[in-house]
Amino acid sequence: MTGIKDVAERAGLSVATVSRALSGKGNVSPTSRERARAAASELGFVLSYHASSLASGRTHNVGLVVPSVHRWFFSAVIEGASAALLEAGYDLTLYNIGENPEHRHSVFNDFLLRKRVDAVIAVSLELSEDELQQLHAMHRPIVGIGGPLPGASTIRIDDSSIARKATNHLLGLGHTKIAHITGNEAYDQDFHLPGTRRSGFEEAMNDAGCPVRPEWIVSADFTIEGAYAAARQLLASAPDRPTAVFAASDEMAIGTILAARDFGLRIPDDLSVMGIDGHDLGNVLGLTTIDQDAKGQGALAVRTLLGAITKGLVLEPADTEHPTKLVVRSSTAVPKAGTF
Q1: Would strands 319-321 and 325-327 be described as parallel, antiparallel, or unpaired?
Q2: Cα 332 from chain centroid (whole Å)
Q3: Number of helical (H) and strand (E) elements in the chain, helices listed first
Q4: I want to staple 232 with a disulfide (CB 3.0 to 4.6 A). Which of 143, 160, 175, 259 is the partner?
Q5: Buried b (16+ CB within 10 A) or exposed e, 53-83
Q6: What is the pLDDT of residues 278-312, one digit of tens each?
Q7: What one-character-per-residue DSSP string does 206-257 give?
Q8: What CA–CA distance (Å, rounded) separates 129 from 42?
Q9: What is the DSSP pairing of strand 272-277 with strand 319-321?
Q10: Any idea what the Cα angle at residue 35 is, between residues 31 and 37, rounded to 5°?
Q11: Which residues, at least 6 apart from 57, have a Cβ–Cβ distance to it below 8 Å?
Q12: Residues 224-265 pLDDT 10s
């Protein structure tokens, strides 16, 4: 049976160098890495992570906990994290806790405590004190995405700031009759994202001296379908309609565009629409948005964790604000004369 010593002899390298080259860990020159991989391929050798984990105490596996895999943001974070882990030679274990309290309890009080992962990424989860204590008891690096986690390193965006930026984009075009589609109460539990974005919208409107009309603030469930239904109700009040809609997510902005078409409204001639996210469909539909680079957030979380793991360092708590970018497309424009 071929072993790592055979690969080392074939490559003319030390066993330690071959181990680092095949595992993707440690500093190895590109030439040595290629020689090790070529020798392993010729001999049909595959590095046993089970054996290496027994020796090093590492599993080469990172746990990723998400509230759902159906929302675009979560799936994009998973994609970014997964790609970064694959490049580093790590596995990913996905824990989709959904809306079932028992599943959430099992993940934090059982699965993660088995220490089958080297680190944990928690996405858009506001953890209880007990859940945080359970995670810290693992003595594994933890990174949170979406909001602050006491005692852990976190990656987030400034939701209030980007909501103001989105609203100011519409105001800057000359819109004063602006509606807002926000998330309903069920989506305000973790880090109060809908409420924070709504506050940013209202602050920008107030600073501009524009009234915030309560009937023009409607709630949906962050889906295209939910926003479509909400926007139909909003836009049914002809002729007293808003000239622009700021949706708290791109999916809800897309639902708004579809609803507007039902009423024969042209985007952006009759109604400007913008969202927040950087959804893949945004480019197809010409949606103006604030791109929060969800895939980049997932990749950054992985790089942060692996940097600590490979160096054997304690990951100190830190709050990192991820950059966002205003992407102006064809869904927003100056309002028609007489509709300001």
Answers
A1: unpaired
A2: 25
A3: 13, 12
A4: 259
A5: eeeeebbbbbbbbbbeeebbbbbbbbebbbe
A6: 999 999 999 999 999 999 999 999 999 988 887 76
A7: HHTT----GGGEEEE-SSHHHHHHHHHHHHTSTTS--SEEEESSHHHHHHHH
A8: 52
A9: unpaired
A10: 115
A11: none
A12: 999 999 999 999 977 789 999 999 999 999 999 999 999 999
If we measure between CA atoms, which residue out of 176, 244, 187, 190 comes closest to residue 219? 187
Q: In the numeric block, which tokens belong to residue 133?
A: 């204590």
* Alpha-carbon span 211 to 326, nearest angstrom: 24
First and final CA of the chain: distance in angstroms?
Answer: 78
The tokens describing 309, both together, are 């793991």
The conformational region for residue 85 under phi > 0 = left, psi -120 to 50 = alpha, else beta, is alpha
Give me the helices (H) in 249-325, please: 250-262, 280-285, 294-311
Token code pair at residue 224: 């295209």
Determine the Cα–Cα distance for residues 283 and 167; give it in Å rounded to an integer. 20
Residues in the chain, total = 340
Q: Which tokens go with 18?
A: 């071959």
Which residue has tokens 């949170």? 144
